[in-house]
Description:
CATH architecture of the largest domain in chain B: Up-down Bundle
Helix content of chain B: 40-55%
Radius of gyration of chain B: 22 Å
Largest sheet of chain A: 4 strands, antiparallel
CATH class of chain A: Alpha Beta
Structural class of chain A: alpha+beta
Strand order of the largest sheet of chain A: 1-4-2-3
CATH topology of chain A: GIY-YIG endonuclease
Strand content of chain B: 15-25%
Strand content of chain A: 15-25%
CATH class of the largest domain in chain B: Mainly Alpha
Distance between the termini of chain A: 13 Å
Low-confidence stretches of chain B: none
Number of helices of chain A: 2
CATH topology of the largest domain in chain B: Butyryl-CoA Dehydrogenase, subunit A, domain 3
Oligomer: heterodimer
Largest sheet of chain B: 4 strands, mixed
Mean pLDDT of chain B: 93
Number of helices of chain B: 10
CATH superfamily of the largest domain in chain B: Butyryl-CoA Dehydrogenase, subunit A, domain 3
Order of helices and strands of chain A: EEEHEH
Amino acid sequence: MALxxxxxxxxxxxxxxxxxxxxxxxxxxxxxxxxFIGVADxxxxxxxxxxxxxxxxxxxxxxxxxxxxTSAYHTRYRELLMVHQATHGxxxxxxxxxxxxxxxx
Amino acid sequence: xxxxxxxxQEMLVQLVxxxxxxxxxxxxxxxxxxxxxxxxxxxxxxxxxxxxxGLYGLDIPPAYGGPAIDLVTRTLLAIEMSQHxxxxxxxxxxxxGGAGLAQLFEASEPQKEKYLYPVLRGEKRGFFGLTxxxxxxxxxxxxxxxxxxxxxxxxxxxGKIFISGADKAQFGLVFARTDPDKGRGGVTCFIVDTxxxxxxxRRVVHTLRSAHYATELSFEDMRVPHANILGKVNGGFAIANxxxxxxxxxxxAGCIGVAVKAHAMAxxxxxxxxxxxxxxxxxxxxxxxxxxxxxxxxxxRWLTLDAAAKADxxxxxxxxxxMAKLVATEAASRVVDRCIQIFGGYGVxxxxxxxxxxxxxxxxxxxxxxxxxxxxxxxxxLLDSPLH
Lengths: 105, 388
């Protein structure tokens, strides 16, 4: 498994094609910079489809998304955050601070 | 043999049972079904309650501030504490505290000052670094991480896998080979600060436990002071082995608690659910599943309490601990599987906890020594032969 989500960005109008499954996703601004990392857990009404749609509305400047279906959504979410923090020195601008482990991939 | 509980044990069991039902289960209904943490504010509030109950730090020896409680009673409480959705790996979300790394109670006084007491105060976290990519069931031979003496330091090179909590820990116990010719007698336990140059958490290891990851570690020319050896040079295997043996009893108890809860849910459900005009409880196929559950649970419970009682009496309990671990993990796996069958389609949804227990219980037949190693231990003790 790649440490980051290694897929092309999709425009917001492709959200209806997202499966209603558990998983993780990233939002990017128009320049392709990751601005938010999110998770669709089992409380999400329509899984990734609902969670991505909600996040695109809530995150200012979000222009595209990419996702990964996974049943290990909790650990994958934390892994993405830790990898981002290790690579960029901080979490994406729209992720709230949280206690994470130290990863040195 | 009298297997009844004492009045004090009965009182403590009822106290913890009520705590799980009134404090843990309502919180859990608001969480994602795979969650293994609660909000910090809730955790602090509940820790105050367990302190008030006199049950905080159950695994801490009384000399260090823990409650004076024997292993049989501790086992009975562990069976109660795991009876909720996250209970197998996060019993009561940790609000009863823990001993951290029990091996540190045997540390030197300077080591206790630096590592044990901060852990007990909640200021530091540690990890237990034994398993390597070359294997975990036979650490005496599988440990390839090397430590070479260099003056007042040891230089460690190698790696570990399936290590919990290393990315958030301030230190860890790392087992390394210090004498390549001595097998189990050539392993030493080092206390390693995680900010030591050369220490690296390389990656997250995803498993069936979707809310909790393990990590893979690498050590590259990591210099550790000689003073950080826990116990003696080449004395690490005994430290690891003692921990593995003792850990098998609460490990078994957690499985029994989940089995008890799953079975109770099934017993409640079958009179309500009708098929072909009659409740499931009237079907012999279902009745026999419940009977088999009951027998599995009682066997596992008695073997586990027997192991705990032998440990409390100061008698050898390695064989009994292995039997408890073997029987409890396999019996609980069968119980959860049968309960899923009884609940049908609902049994595999995240609306109910069975699917989580099913996934996590599968790990229990491997973790802390797989079933085959438990049988190997029992056979060795039966035949009084060395481990080959």
